[in-house]
């Protein structure tokens, strides 16, 4: 009698599983590296195991060996193991049930020049880059306008350079893509230029988009009484590594790592 009840209970849970998953907002969660699962096969207790998905997306399962589950939804993973058992002749009509014990692959790392770097869970399946940057507190003052996203898509390495301001300024930014478990977002340090000589506040400053020499000079407080905005020298590293010495116009653009020298006025 107890065995009959257990059989009926397992059959009932198997029938209800699709309905339960359909009502679950995370039903389309796809397994990733680091996820811990329990695999059960009806009336085959010897095939019940607990395993962790390896970096390559596989688990080692009794009788069939390595099984690729990474990137599959729970129902797809169940079908994959069932097919392997049936095709191998181990179980004629396997009824496989997988329980997600611990989620590790369902996280995104946000690194570099952000206020709260770390790993953050994907709470929904349509989480976007802007959501993850917000979770990390946004970029620091010294953070670049460019972020780099790396991960896997369809089992292949994926890399995308993202224009951060456009995520919030453009109504339909093409860069605000959906992230996936295991992705990493890196915000590099913003490029800088240097100003010295007869400047009020010599030092290193962030290169803003479209910045001109006049604007760069203003960031440094302008020239001192002894200096002149018309008597400048710009040092710029060329493609071959040599240093060019330029007498810039105030409307010329400023590039990363430019060095502006404010010379003393002749009069």
Overview of the structural elements:
The model is unreliable at 5-10 and 19-26 (pLDDT under 50). The chain has 5 helices and 15 strands. 21% of the residues lie in helices and 34% in strands. The chain has helices spanning 2-23, 74-87, 129-135, 164-169, 213-219; strands spanning 36-41, 49-52, 58-61, 65-68, 96-102, 107-112, 118-121, 143-153, 156-163, 184-189, 192-197, 203-206, 227-237, 243-246, 259-264. The protein folds into 3 domains: 2-102, 2-Layer Sandwich (wza like fold); 107-189, Outer membrane lipoprotein wza domain like (Outer membrane lipoprotein wza fold like), CATH 3.10.560.10; 192-264, Outer membrane lipoprotein wza domain like (Outer membrane lipoprotein wza fold like, Roll). It is an alpha+beta fold. The N and C termini lie far apart (108 Å). 23% of the residues are buried. Strands 7-6-10-8-9 form a 5-stranded mixed sheet. The protein has a 5-stranded mixed sheet with strand order 12-11-15-13-14, with helices on one face. Strands 2-1-5 form a 3-stranded antiparallel sheet, with helices on one face.
Q: Helices and strands, in N-to-C order? A: HEEEEHEEEHEEHEEEHEEE
Distance between the termini: 108 Å
CATH class of the largest domain: Alpha Beta
> Tally the helices: what do you get?
5
Strand arrangement within the widest β-sheet reads 7-6-10-8-9
Count of discrete domains: 3
What can be said about the biggest beta sheet? 5 strands, mixed
CATH architecture of the largest domain: 2-Layer Sandwich
CATH fold field value of the largest domain:
wza like fold
Shape: rod-shaped
Q: What proportion of the residues form beta strands (DSSP E)?
A: 25-35%
Strand tally is 15
Radius of gyration based on Cα positions: 29 Å
Corresponding CATH superfamily of the largest domain: wza like domain
């Amino acid at each position: 009698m107890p065995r009959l009840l257990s059989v009926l209970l397992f059959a009932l849970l198997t029938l209800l599983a699709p309905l339960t998953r359909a009502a679950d907002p995370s039903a389309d969660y796809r397994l990733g590296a680091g996820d811990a699962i329990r695999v059960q096969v009806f009336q085959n207790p010897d095939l019940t195991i607990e395993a962790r998905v390896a970096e390559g997306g596989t688990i080692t399962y009794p009788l069939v060996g390595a099984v690729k589950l990474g990137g599959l939804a729970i129902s797809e993973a169940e079908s994959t193991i069932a097919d392997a058992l049936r095709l191998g002749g181990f179980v004629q009509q396997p009824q496989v049930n997988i329980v997600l014990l611990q989620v590790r692959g369902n996280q995104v790392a946000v690194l570099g020049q952000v206020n709260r770097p770390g790993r953050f869970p994907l709470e929904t399946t349509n989480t976007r880059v802007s959501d993850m940057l917000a979770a990390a507190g946004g970029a620091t003052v010294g953070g670049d306008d460019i972020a780099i996203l790396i991960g896997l898509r369809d089992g292949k390495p994926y890399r995308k350079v993202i224009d951060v301001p456009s995520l919030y300024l453009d109504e339909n930014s093409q860069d605000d893509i959906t992230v996936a478990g295991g992705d990493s977002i890196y915000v590099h340090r913003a490029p800088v230029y240097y100003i010295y000589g007869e400047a009020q506040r010599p030092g290193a400053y962030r290169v803003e988009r479209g910045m001109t020499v006049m604007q760069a000079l203003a960031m440094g407080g302008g020239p001192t009484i002894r200096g002149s905005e018309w008597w400048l020298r710009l040092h710029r590293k060329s493609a071959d590594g040599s240093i060019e010495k330029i007498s810039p116009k105030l409307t010329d653009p400023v590039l990363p790592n430019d060095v502006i020298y404010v010379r003393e006025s002749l009069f």
